[in-house]
Task: structure prediction
Amino acid sequence: MTEPANTYALSGRTALVTGGSRGIGRGIAIGLARCGANVAVNYREAAGAAAQVVTEIERFGRKGVALRADVTDPRAVDRMLTEMESAVGPAEILVNNAGVVRRTPFLEIPQEEWTVVLETNLHAAFLVGQAVARRMVKHRVRGRIINISSTSARIAGPNLTPYCVSKAGVTMLTKQMALELAEHGIQVNEVNPGLIETDMTHAYIQNEANRQLRLGRIPLKRIGEPADVVGAVLFLASRDAGLMTGASVFVDGGVTVW
Result:
């Protein structure tokens, strides 16, 4: 993975990244540390991978902590934030990254699959976003919340109904949060990645037919990697994005220009 440059000054800031043990979340957590932030890495099952991310964070001389929590459970979220405050301090930057994808034809989608995808991708972003925002207000933190959505918020895809619906919901959630939290000095934006090669998408991309189909729709003719998303997140977390809230930043090689 190409490592992003240490461009933005985030020294002394404290960040929480949900789903931070692998893929895009891992890249974001390490990128924030590289720019000076102390980082709490949320994970659900991959304890070993989360511990490795914390090791990478500490190599930059920053504080890191791995926090196990099911972010669809409000009580688990509150416990996680309390643990975070004890370990590294209250969150000043939140990156809602936790997510899942399932590929099933519309007529065959079981209710359980619909529920899992909506709860993980949308409900969790609401729960964690609200809980963090409440604590930001309590601590008088003029914070940044960055939701990781997708180009699927705008473009329908075959066999991706719950995923596309959940990501479209994240886009409106971002706008509502931005509107209602502005008076507290909290800025809320989202990043919308296109096709990014991670462990979650690797098998799909390795299918040559899938790969060529998707490349044919990308004007820049390149499938992204986590570092491409990291740069956008670092920008939105920085002072350079001081007048941005409610914005959607697409990192997709031009897919959404069609």
